[in-house]
Every structure is written in structure tokens, then in C-alpha cells.
Predict the 3D structure of the following.
Amino acid sequence: MTDMAETMRPRQRSAVGLRLLGPVLALLLSACATRQTPSGLPLPEPAHPTVTAPAAPTSAEQDALKALVALQDRLDRVAAPLLINNPELCKSQARNLLGFTAKNKYSYSGEFADAAQQMFGLSERLQVISVVSGSGAARLGLKRGDSLLKVEDKPLPEGQNAERQAAVVLAPMVGKRSSVKLTIARNGTEQVLDIPLTRACGFRVELGNTDNVNSYADGGRVLVTRGMMSFLQSDNELAYVIAKEMAHNALGHPSKLRMNATVGGVIDNLIRVHPDTSTLGGTNGIRAMPQEFDAAADTLSLYMIARGGYNVDGALRFWQRLASQYPATVLNGHTAIHPASAYRFTVMEQILADVKAKQAAKKPLLP
């Protein structure tokens, strides 16, 4: 999930569109002057370059972009309650978030640039693409399609680097305030909204554009692959996967294993439109998670799931099914980097009983 202040970082992408060149020095000639060669013969008039309109996006490009956007929307929707309802469990990694994602026409790769502009009506300005359900932005009525004009009366950047520049402007404001005044354009009119900031786990939840069945955490991000999302049978199961990786981040496991950079490189690759799949034959240099770390993350994740309003009952069955269909011998799969299945399942049985007992007794859902 990409939040404008805490998590906005342009995805790695190929160049999009044509860049405008700097000022061109024009040679001003008299309207009645005739251009001549040294011999006195007139020069032929220069040919005017033909300006070709960009080709309309193909239906295949639009369908591919729609599929990616739909998967990311599902990730955002399922992740939202987990992020918003668990700042106490994320501890030092809890942040104030604006609660929405914004992009402009430069936010998509060259392959999808035209399709994105046509589908979303994107321009130079940043435009709201998604709003986190349950956030202050959602409660105040911010909508997909709203254009961002100003924050605290300061004009927001436009153009190719707008996402990165806007993050620089917004980050210090979000860290020190309980709300941010945002000027938007909607249906041709300007509106000023005082957006309440939302305390949440400050993790980005990303889509991995590959078919291997896996998920990753690098300390600040969670990535779920397209293959994993195809394997899942429900939003509850997606919540199990997201919460597990959130728990690894909250417990500092990537840092303790010195895997932040390695896993971060894997995530950077997988979020591309065309990842380098030659590295997916193995574990990408990621160390297997020690069983104590995995059990601790399972424990914390089950509480996160319950606090997020999801049903914990199917969690153990899901992980058992995943380990059975994608065992540790599948080196690019989830179990290969989480191999202590038997130990994990024993711990999960105990923790599930504890969580359900606390739910029944209406006690605080804390590990």
C-alpha cells in the first residue's frame, strides 16, 4: 500500500513519454526577407516535421493494466484493516499516514503509460488513485480521481518527479501534525479538506509481478506475488499472508538476519512490469527463517489478524495446505524460506487457542 507521505516512492520503471527540451533559441527573420545561398539562389523551404499522435493503447495493454490494478486494489483493501488496527503491535514502525495513494501520468511504465492515462485520466498533476478504507481520508470523503493542488496552501509538485517531490514536502508535516489541510480539484471546483492523519503500521504492501508462490518482507515493505494471490482461496487467506510478513517486519527479523538489502533487492525486481525471472530458480540468496523467528511471527500475526477483524479459524489449515502443495523443495516458493513447518504448526495450535479464548472473554488481543 502506497501512502503519500510515509511510503511514496516511484516504482522502478522505464522512461515514459517525451521529455520537453529546454528553451530553443529562435532566429527571428524579417517577414519579407528571402533566404539565399551565396550564389544568390533562393534556399528551399525546410520541411516541417510531421507530428504523430501517440498510438491509442491496445486492448491487451488495457486488460493487462486492469489486471495489475485489480490485484493491487485487492491487496490495499485487505491490508487496510491490518495496518490501521495494529499500530500497537508494530511499535516503533507505527506512523501517521495520510491514507491515500496518488499518481500522475508518469507513474506507469512506458508500456502502460497510454493505457493508464486513458483509464484514469491522468495528467501532470497528482491524482488520487486509491483511498485506504477506515482512514481519516476515507472518513472525510476523499475520492479516487481527486486532483491534488496544495497542502497547507503550498502548491504540490507536478510533472515527472511529482511523487518523490511531494513525499519530501509531506513527510515532515505528517510527522508533526494530527491533520493536514489539502486543497483538491473535483469536478472542476476546488475544495479544501482537513485530512485527519491515521496512526497505522508504516509498511508498504506491494504486488510482485511473478507467478512463484511466495511473499517477502524487507523491514519496511511487504510483497505478495501474483502467484501467491492466485493460490489463495479467500481474502482471509490473503490477510494471513500479509500479516505474517508484517509480523516479520515488526519483530525486526530482516534486520536481525541481515537480509534487508537482499530481500529489498528481490522486492525491487519483482515490482517491475517485467521482472528478471532468471533469478527465480532458487531462493535469491535469502536465508531460511529460523524456527524461533517464524514461530514468533506466526504468534504476532495471529493477533494482528484477529485485531484486523479477520477470521483466524482457517489460518492453520491454510499454512498446512501451502506447505503441502509447495514444499521446501520448491526453491522459489514460500516454504523454502520458511521450512520449519512442523514446529510452526504446533505453536500456531497453541496461539490460536489463546486468541480465541481472549476473544470469547472479550479481553485485549495482545500477545
Observations:
- The longest helix spans residues 59-84.
- The CA atoms of residues 291 and 340 lie 5 Å apart.
- Residues 5-53 have pLDDT under 50 and may be disordered.
- The first strand starts at residue 94 and ends at 97.
